[in-house]
Predict the structure.
Amino acid sequence: MDSGSYTEITRFGTWRCDPDLFGSRVTRVLDNVGTPPVFCAPQDIPCEPQARAASGLPVAEHQSDTIENLIYLREQFPFVPWLPVLQGWEPDQYLDHAFQYRCAGIDLTREPLVGVGSLCRRGAGQTSTVVRIIRSLRDLGITLHRFGVSQHVLARCPVELSSVDSLAWSRSARWHGRAMPGCAHPGSCTNCADFALRWHRRATSLVQPRHRSLRPLRQQRHGHAPSGVRAGRRQ
């Protein structure tokens, strides 16, 4: 489950709800959904230029606030599968953030899954930088989840990423008002499972020759890393 951190920070410069309220809202979701999410993202602070301009804070403070929030949420809401998220902008900043986690007592190599943020809104011209960031973190032995993956990156990092999500399928349907032939629901396929699965098949076809274990991300017991491509909704 995503936290919608990019939208929150770029629009308001800070989180409008404190960790206790955020944790209680996530708890309510877990209590009411049929299939609990594999992970729940904390109130991480993205490091895109737009996010830093909105907050007025440097990357280092975004990183430290992200770790502090995760620690608090895990202490107060231990039954929630909180996902550590690595943030940064330059490749070395992600490595620095991994080291900061270790200094805070969190060994990311022992986590079932670790998110990588502030990558999805980089243009195609930064694909090589994104690939470099992913590979450098994977070389540390960290099991990675990528928020908002592009097909260009997915094709180049089919082994380094254990799971990914993407809004591309839903955005395409919403922006262009698309509906697949044969769909009985009204309007576009913005929230259509069949449309999402078609996107999933197209995405996995890019990487299956090198990563045959990719499948739609399903609920697994906390402590076991999932592997798959998830047609998700990144706010």
Remarks:
- The CA atoms of residues 45 and 61 lie 9 Å apart.
- The longest strand covers residues 161-165.
